[in-house]
Write a structure and sequence with these properties.
462 residues, alpha+beta, seven-stranded mixed beta sheet, 17 helices
């Protein structure tokens, strides 16, 4: 009689053979139903053949914990007038449960994770929405069951939307109570005319208060599909078992019946400097100078990152020495928000008492002009590269940190930049920094915003 291996034993023996180099094929061959897409620096990408779900596995056995994250490729860039804020509102409603997993049954995602001691969160951005949990490895399957279920079977009840509006409205009001946040929204809206980045992630008040539940259902049914999502699993996992669970629970759902809508709008060329002013009660003024720069995957982004570090990283940075040390600002900095489409670079400063907006704006632009005309030093480049490496290592400390960084690069369009971007940083030269300063920081391509504090109405005329 011929001895036959069970399918599970065949898989285990194949994995052992892989580990010792006896067989040269990926887990996609070991676990049927997956396509092996690529592997890089300990991260393996697979695609579930039945529905197009992207899976990233990053085993790390240093602690018995796992971070499981789902990134949906939908954010405020996918919204239009009337549905602004829908992605963020849906993020809240995703925790209201489904027919199979909900609070009345005692098995909702919140109840499960609290019971097993897991940590969970979710966030919405311009280009993505993500749901993330960190828990013990023995509890992973239970979480995958619930997370997969709410991709396709979410409750969307008008009563839940009305109840959650209290929370969303509080978030909206907190943003509106911050003069700097309001100024940044105004600058962004002026900088982008065509791209949906024109509106904020939380949306316009009238939209988030009045959007019908049917519109939210339509939005959910359009974008929440396996072929518009990426699952990242980082930590103490058995890759074979993890893929089997993902196939079992996510494989039950088809790919979208219709093609996921492609956002094809492009920002037209800017034809002159733009300015906005925000006047409201406050204590100190703010200046923001913004310039549009290429998308987050552009080859110039590493040089722009080093430029920002030279301008604003630490007390030896140029903006600190030029504005804070000279009593013009309480703080000053530079940053670029990497996005899937055209990104936005900002210079900002909070005015010191007695300083004028004119003087602070002039000082910010003067530092850019110095770099455009005279460049930066090799010593500055070396210093900020070391600072970048240290900060990057800190961000990637732990399974949740790794998953969060992967999430951002998935949203921008290529998770492999998680590995490649630090390598590109290491190759940036002083000449690169001067070149991007000349190329992108042109007055005619700028949007400048001033926050001017005024007395509250009750104090006027007293």
């Amino acid at each position: 009689m011929r001895f036959r291996l069970t399918p599970r034993l065949e898989i285990l023996l194949a994995v052992v053979a892989l580990a010792f180099g006896a067989i040269d094929y990926s887990l996609a061959a070991v676990v049927p139903g997956f396509v092996s897409v690529k592997s890089l620096d300990g991260i393996d990408e697979y695609r579930l053949e039945s529905n197009g779900l992207t899976i990233l596995l990053a085993p790390d056995h240093s602690a018995p914990v796992v971070t499981f994250q789902v990134t949906y490729r939908v954010g405020s860039r996918n919204e239009v007038t009337g549905t602004t804020g829908s992605t963020h509102l849906l993020e809240h409603l995703m925790f209201k449960g489904s027919e199979g997993f909900n609070d009345p049954k005692g098995n909702s995602v919140k109840q499960y994770l609290e019971r097993v001691g897991g940590q969970y969160n979710a966030s919405t951005g311009e280009d993505r929405t993500n749901y993330i949990a960190t828990l013990g490895r023995l509890n992973l399957e239970g979480y995958i069951v619930i997370e997969a279920d709410r991709m396709h079977h979410l409750w969307l009840h008008d009563a839940d939307k009305q109840a959650e509006m209290t929370v969303v409205r509080n978030e909206f009001e907190r943003g509106k109570n911050s003069p700097d946040s309001v100024l940044m929204e105004e600058v962004t809206a002026a900088a982008y005319q065509a791209l949906p980045y024109h509106h904020s992630v939380i949306g316009w008040r009238s939209d988030i208060e009045n959007v019908p539940i049917g519109k939210l259902r339509e939005f959910y049914d359009t974008f929440y599909w396996p072929n518009n999502a990426a699952v990242s699993v980082v930590g103490d996992i058995d890759p074979v078992v993890t893929l089997e669970w993902i196939k079992k629970y996510y494989g039950a759902y088809p790919r979208s019946q219709n093609e996921i809508p492609h956002m094809y709008t492009e920002e037209p060329a800017q034809s002159g400097a733009r300015r906005v002013t925000v006047k409201r009660p406050g204590e100190l003024g703010t200046v923001i100078v913004a310039h549009k720069v290429p998308n987050g995957l552009d080859k110039d982004q590493p040089a722009l990152d080093m430029l920002d570090s030279i301008l604003s990283s630490g007390k030896n940075a140029r903006l600190y020495r030029a504005l804070v040390d000279h009593g013009l600002a309480l703080n000053a900095g530079a940053d670029v928000d990497l996005r899937r489409d055209m990104s936005l670079h900002v210079l900002f400063a909070s005015l010191a008492p007695g300083a004028t907006h004119e003087a602070v704006e002039k000082a910010l632009l003067a530092e850019i002009t110095k770099i455009q005309e005279n460049g930066v030093t090799a010593e500055e480049i070396d210093r900020v590269k070391q600072q970048y490496l240290a900060a990057d290592a800190y961000k990637r400390d732990g399974t949740a940190g790794i998953a969060a960084e992967l999430n951002e690069w998935v949203a921008i369009g290529d998770w492999t930049e998680y590995v490649h971007f630090p390598q590109k940083i290491a190759q940036v030269t002083a000449a690169d920094v001067q070149r991007v300063a000349k190329q992108y920081f042109n007055e005619d391509q700028s949007t400048t915003g001033w926050f001017i504090p005024v007395l509250p109405p009750s104090e006027k005329g007293t």
